[in-house]
Structures are given as C-alpha cells and as structure tokens.
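Researcher: Please translate sequence to structure tokens.
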Amino acid sequence: MPEVTFDIVWPDGSKEQFYSPSTVVKKYIESGQTYDLQDFVRRSQESLILASDRVKQMYGSPCALAIGQLRRVENKAIEFAAQDNAQVKVL
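Model: Translation complete:
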C-alpha cells in the first residue's frame, strides 16, 4: 500500500509533517491549498479514518499510526480554535 506524507503550516507559522498509509489523503488534502482550520481537521478526519480502514481491509486491523496522526491534528488544532480565520496551509 503506498504511503504519503504531507507537510503543513499551522496558523502560528509552525510546520509539521503527517503520515498516511494510503494515497486516499490526496483526495482530501491538496498540496498548495490553504484550508480553514475546521475544514482541515474535518478533511484529516475523513481521509485518515478512510486510510486506516483500507489498511484494515488488507491486513485485518486498522492502522494505529494513521489514527495517531489524526489525534495529533485534532490536539494541535485545539490551540488555534479560538482564533478568528485560523488557516492551515499544505506545502
């Protein structure tokens, strides 16, 4: 199963890299795009859960790493939830 990493810039300018065990994430999170924080979180949730489910279909158990990446996104996004117009840029 092809893996994907994607780099983002959080609203505070910090950069972070995330991992997906499936290329399905490319249908949800596009390089060069900027997303509203909540939209980025939603896209991350949908794509990383789907990626984990694809691993489960192939290997019999969900991908703990994909779910861990999703938790990282969700936890970091909490820091910016109160900011007006918080955006995430995908590099």
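Researcher: Any highlights?
Model: Residues 4-90 form one domain.
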